[in-house]
Amino acid sequence: MSDLSLYFQELVSEKRRRVRDRALLGLLRALSYPYALVLRLRALGYRLGLLRSYRLPCPVVSVGNLTLGGTGKTPTVAWIADYLMRRGKRVAVLSRGYGGSAAGELRVVCDGKSLLLPPEVAGDEPCLLAAKLPGLMVVIGADRYRAGLRALEELKPDLVVLDDGFQHLRLRRDLNILLLDAASPFASGWTLPGGMLREPACAARRADLVVYTRSPEGAPGPELFPEKPSCWTKHQFSGIVPLAGGELGGFEGARRGRVLAFSGIADPEAFFSGLEAIGVMPVTTISFPDHSPYGEAEVAAILRLKTASRSTVLLTTQKDAVKLVPYAQRLAGCFAVVLELACEDPRPLEAALDKLLAHS
Fold first, then answer.
1. Of all residues in the chain, what percent are helix, strand and coil, respectively (each to 5)?
2. Whether residue 193 has a cis bond before it, omega within 30° of 0
3. Domain count of the chain?
């Protein structure tokens, strides 16, 4: 995580208590009021038809959230796409391609057979989804409607899944899924720039179904929207795979070895604490900015820390791993930790998807 990103998170979560920090936070929160008003008016404009939205000639499932940072969108999109594909459907994911050099451009990342763009161009998440699910088609573009038309014209999917699409109101959706972190669903409650919310919490009313992520052990917490169907999920580490690819293995070697854990994701501490929860205790860790591109400088930093800490095992996330494959030989002993979504009761989500399939 960059120093600026860390400072912003600590500032809006009120961990920074100096006078100048509190003064800056007060200014940012004053600016949150007009920001939230603009977003409310924008949503109202789409609801009343004053702003034009478009419908694709196929079912659209949208997965998104309200807050900055990770709430498990990629594992959820992968779960949904896999569910639909196992029912014989051709599925295309529409993503913005954030973090890649082609972010915002209209490009086909994967045609269901071959990966056509590398992660440094397409972004890590589109390439990770294509690698996890053979047969999945992936298209990137800032305008998801145009991306959907491109997918339909060239790839002929039966359905499309809109990744990180809750705020992309220009494209109509048939199933609108909202992810909320069970531990902190609305963060501080403030929108940008004085908080972590992308739009006011009342926007959650647009959701057809709520998926609570990172749910606590035991009984689920209270539902914030009892009138809406919901699921409670956890993200669990299911094993590790070599950076260059191979069979899924267990964590026994990592538990016995000296581990250096590193990541370039929105919430690196969740990754590190997740390892500790399964008995993998890193001797040292390193965090890079979210969507870090990984070049010579980053690889050199990892190798220096590996030598200094006398680490024998390197562990990183799958999002990072897709960008590090060219360095697999230099990063000997590096493994990607496989993250999967576990639903306590998937029936509400399955029922919503089955209903969509029945009417498609």
1. 35, 20, 40
2. yes
3. 2
Q: Please identify which residue in the block is written with the tokens 């390197």.
A: 314
| Strand extents, DSSP E, the chain | 60-65, 91-95, 107-111, 137-140, 159-163, 175-181, 209-213, 230-242, 259-263, 284-287, 313-317, 334-343
Mean pLDDT of all residues belonging to the chain: 93
Domain range spanning residue 240?
Answer: 236-340
- d(Cα 271, Cα 269) in Å, to the nearest integer? 5
Q: For residues 226 and 293, state if they share a domain.
A: no
Give residue for tokens 């409607």: 145
Average pLDDT over residues 218-231: 81
Same domain? 129 vs 172: yes
Percent of the chain with pLDDT over 70: 98
**Per-residue confidence band for 289, with pLDDT thresholds at 50, 70 and 90:** confident
d(CA 289, CA 5): 8
CB atoms within 10 A of CB 146: 16
